[in-house]
Every structure is written in C-alpha cells, then in structure tokens.
C-alpha cells in the first residue's frame, strides 16, 4: 500500500512499550509523528529516540504526540529503552510499537525489498488531527533525522492551515510568509494582513507572520 499526502493514516491496534495501542484513538485530537526503525539497538536510531525524548516540551506545545516503530518485540524494546535512557541522558517518554508481525509496516509500506526484505526503512509521517498524512520523509540508514526540520514543517503546516499563507524556502517560525496566490481581493487582503505586505511580483507577496504580535 503506497500512502500519499492527504490520505487517511491507516488505523491499527498493536503492542508497544506502553501496552496495546489503537492508533487513531491514541492520537485523539493531536497531531502525530510516527517514525520507523529497522531494528532495536541500532546506533543512529538510539540517538534519534533520545533526541525525541528531549524534545518532549517542543512537541507538547505544538499538540504533537510522537510514536516510534521497530519490528522487534516488547521485551527487546524494554532493554533498548534502558540503553537509550543511559546513553542519551534522558527518559523515553513516548511509546515504541512492537511490530514483530510487521502489521503496521505493511500498512505504511515500510518494507522496501531493495533496501531490506525483513527490516523496515526509516520513514517518518506527520499526521494531523483529522488523521490525514501531511508529510512523509524516508531517510537512508546512515543518516540521522533532522528533528529541527520536522518541527519546522509542523510549524508551517499549523500556520498555513489557519491563515491564507505559505512559507518560503528556509522559512523559520517568525520569518515573513507568502500570501497565497489565490487570494486577490484587495479589501480581504487588508483585513487578513493588517501589517501590510510587500509585492515582489504580482504572485510573490511577502507579509509578516500573521500569528505573531
């Protein structure tokens, strides 16, 4: 099953380091970050899970729940979490799915035969409260994920969902944004963007980020 942006993230029930999880129910009205790992006790993933734990407050203020996945069983996860806590000097504060039967891996197309016939690839999904997939990224095994970028994209998605803007290249929270081309009514533009805007071209109009003072 190949998932695309805008698709509903498949629901599932699976064991985890925090007990059984029914995914959509667990997400509730939160955003979600679901990210997969080839196996427990892998070095790059150990650093990523530690980083995710340390970013708990950043995820929380964005109403985001993080959940990881590995094809190893719960008892292996428990031992791995001990290693993560010790080596990364943190406490893992989110569940790790124990996808030993690869049920979730199959639902999310995480088995890529040209990469591995048994282990999941290192994919990440951002899922909104309507359970729609809003971002997918698949990383090579040798490259750790950039969670600053994940948070940046979530900031962009949450901003652009509530305002008639898009975010330019290398945008960071607080930078100017782009008024969407579909918005052409001058009076409506003035109401939506009281701080004004700069028209670089008729289709490229920059305005201060509207949800900032």
Task: Give a structural overview.
The protein has helices at 23-27, 43-54, 56-61, 74-88, 103-107, 147-162, 186-192, and strands at residues 13-14, 21-22, 31-37, 64-70, 96-98, 122-127, 133-139, 165-166, 177-179, 198-201, 204-207. The chain has two domains: 13-144, Glutaredoxin; 163-207, no CATH class. Helix content is 31%, strand content 22%. Helix 2 (43-54) packs across helix 4. A five-stranded mixed beta sheet has the order 5-4-3-6-7.
Name the descriptors.
single chain, 213 residues, alpha+beta, Glutaredoxin, five-stranded mixed sheet, four-stranded antiparallel sheet, 7 helices, 11 strands, 31% helix, 22% strand, elongated
Topology (SSEs and partners):
Elements: E1 13-14, E2 21-22, H1 23-27, E3 31-37, H2 43-54, H3 56-61, E4 64-70, H4 74-88, E5 96-98, H5 103-107, E6 122-127, E7 133-139, H6 147-162, E8 165-166, E9 177-179, H7 186-192, E10 198-201, E11 204-207
Parallel strand pairs: 3-4, 4-5
Antiparallel strand pairs: 1-2, 3-6, 6-7, 8-9, 9-11, 10-11
Helix pairs in contact: 2-4
